[in-house]
């Protein structure tokens, strides 16, 4: 029945800080839509952003910055991702480590975004 993920909604402390981090560190595209809404776009997916206290309805029951734990797939090899993260001043908290992705084995790096969300960037082996 379900084909793919279209979007997730992140509740963030600061849309500006979130946009800066995700565009600079992860190379996603920032788009605005509707009445001043923001989204981070990549591939066929996007993250819609809600700023804490200014959420759009309907929303999660307990919108909370820093409550996400997500895995993003890259085509870059791990050494290139590590070098880029270092250039951006991002501290890798774990990795590289081998994990299992949705369709097979992956190699992963873990770090946190400005709200403390755990970000895993992986590539398929």
UniProtKB/TrEMBL annotation:
It comes from the Bacteria. Signal peptide: none annotated. Residues 4-124 form the VOC domain. CDD domains: GLOD5. PROSITE patterns: VOC. One of its GO terms (molecular function) is dioxygenase activity. InterPro entries: Glyas_Bleomycin-R_OHBP_Dase (IPR029068), Glyas_Fos-R_dOase_dom (IPR004360), GlyoxalaseI/FosfomycinResist (IPR050383), VOC_core (IPR037523). This is Catechol 2,3-dioxygenase. It comes from Pseudomonas segetis.
């Amino acid at each position: 029945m379900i084909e793919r993920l279209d979007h997730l909604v992140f509740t963030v402390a600061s849309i500006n800080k979130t946009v800066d981090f995700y565009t600079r560190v992860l190379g996603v595209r920032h788009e605005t839509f509707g009445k001043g809404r923001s989204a981070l776009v990549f591939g066929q997916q996007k993250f819609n952003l809600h700023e804490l206290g200014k959420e759009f309805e309907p929303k999660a029951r307990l919108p909370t910055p820093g409550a996400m734990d997500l895995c993003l797939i890259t085509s870059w090899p791990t050494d290139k991702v590590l070098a880029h993260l270092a250039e951006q001043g991002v501290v890798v908290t774990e990795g590289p480590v081998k994990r299992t992705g949705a369709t097979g084995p992956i190699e992963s790096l873990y770090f946190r975004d400005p709200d403390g969300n755990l970000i895993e960037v992986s590539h398929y082996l």
